[in-house]
Amino acid sequence: MLRRTLLALMALLPLALPAAAAGPRKPLSDQDKADIARAESYMNAITTLKARFQQFAPNGSVSEGTAYFSRPGRMRLQYDPPSPLLVVADGTFLIVHDRELGEPSYIPLGSTPAGVLVRENVQLDGKDLTVTRVTRAPGVLNISLVESDDAGQGELTLVFTDQPLALRQWRVLDAQGSVTTVSLFDAQNGLRLDRKLFEFQDPKFTKPKLNDG
User: Fold this and answer.
1) Burial class for 103, CB neighbours closer than 10 Å (0-12, 13-18, 19+)
2) Which residues pair with 189 in a beta bridge?
3) How far apart are CA 167 and CA 124, in angstroms?
């Protein structure tokens, strides 16, 4: 059960990655800079998003669920049964709750890739983030980035489909070269989402309803 929770966290936390693993960085081309600017504009234009997701763990396991995003600062990953996992970003913390373990984990949102996805002003190549490379395939744009002041904390790759531009996947690379991938599909933008989706109620502190009868 603990291993399952750790695998879920791998999709959201920057994991230790040796600095040498990234190799020397090539200067960004004019095309790279233009594509980064397009990706930033696209992400900053998102207010809310709902999508189904599939999470592929390094051990080969696959989880599914529904993702909700509300910028700035809020996200919910509702895993389908039988998974007991729930992930909520409430604007301050990323809360990971495994119902079978019972004790939720609170991680500062700004220290996670989730923080990049829902921050108020997305700058992929700014003061605190540095783009390591931009790669392209037919209809696909990949942008990989690290923390500017601590590249050894891991690498996050955002994968977009092109024309029209849309976020479809993110990948996190760990120190052993293992990759955890979260893919989005059936995405809907601009929906009205209940703010309670982004509030975590710890079952230990939730009072049961009394029977009036």
Assistant:
1) exposed
2) 49
3) 14
Residue 20 in tokens: 């040498």
Antiparallel, parallel or unpaired: β 155-161 and 166-173: antiparallel
Q: Does the pLDDT value for residue 211 go beyond 70? A: no
Q: Phi first, then psi: what are they for 205, rounded to 5°?
A: -110, 10
Q: Which residues pair with 94 in a beta bridge?
A: 89, 107
Please give the Cα distance from 24 to 12 (Å, whole number). Answer: 25
What value does the mean pLDDT of the chain take?
Answer: 83
CA atoms within 13 A on the CB side of 212: 0
pLDDT of 102 over the 80 cut: no
DSSP string, 137-200: ETTEEEEEEEETT-GGG-EEEEEEETTTTEEEEEEEE-TTS-EEEEEEEEEEES----GGGG--
112-154 pLDDT, tens per residue?
Answer: 777 888 999 999 987 788 999 999 999 999 999 987 776 666 7
Q: How far, in Å, CA of 191 to CA of 155, rounded?
A: 30
